[in-house]
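Revision sheet: structure tokens.
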Amino acid sequence: MANFESNTTVDSSTLEKLVAKTVDVVINSSPITLRLLGNQKTWMGKRMKFPIKWQKGVAGTSFDGLQKFSTSRSSSFQMMEFDPTGYEINVVLPQIEVDVNESAKVIDVVARELQSRQEDMIDDIGALFYTVHTAADTNFLSLIDACDDNTLGSSLGYGGLARATYGIQGNYTADAAMTLALLRTKYAACTHGNAKPDLIVTTKLNWARYEVLCSAAATSGQIVYTNTGYPQMTRTGIVPSVQALKGQRGFDVLYFSGTPMVIDEKCPTSYMLFLNTDYLAFYGLKSTDPNYKAVKFAQGTIDSVYSDVPKTTGFSFSGFNTPIDQYAKVGHILLMGNLICSNPRTQGLNIHSS
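Predicted:
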């Protein structure tokens, strides 16, 4: 390749061209994070409380005559309780850079920095959604917390209750080779009546392992995607690839027992999560500070895994402030609330060694 960096003939006669699109080569996609943040429920009150029935009441009695009926009172109910927390990220720009940019703008540096920091924040939150909560941190609760049975580190219980005592354990299985029989066992453990997993989230490697297990069925014609491509996952659900929603990035999908299995690049190595999203939601606490305004992801100056996913994130932005001793712009983006599972026994986690 020719090097014109020190070529004075070319350098003194030809303008450089800056492409008006920045390519993101660091952020990895997390469809479950997008889905949870894009379909938030509203936080209400000091704490979110979820009543559960944790044990059967006093047994009834048979009778065939004039026996007395039991008048013993049953105590079957308890309350899971959750507190809100928050996460913030700054947006900082030297004003002199903004001034220079305005003099001959190709890319709007303010808009790009805002989009970049929003995407950094959702990437950070995606990592938190796969991190076990401990007593020492103020992080959001995670998907792992919802699936844990107390094995993965935290002895805090869940929702202020001991998991084993109140029947709020997730379904966790450690370090097992992937087989269809094992997947069926996990799926059955998470199924109670009509409540069953509606989304399986895993890594690229585990997705490929499952694809291999499906290969015989695909060869026999039971699974045919040759002409249409794989279905895709969007924030609003799963759609066939030929009907994928315009302006939304799709994610390849396979199915197990009618449940879509998708790749999440934030998912820890070897993990496979069986989720029932009917009992899993991010409850967002709205900022009432008039200086903080709601912001959205939108198309902008960065080509990234999130740039073409129009989605309300629940984030609030403080607007830019000017420090008294700096020529700069400083703002803060924040998200408040918590990720809550109201029925952990419908959630599951496998860790596959092969």
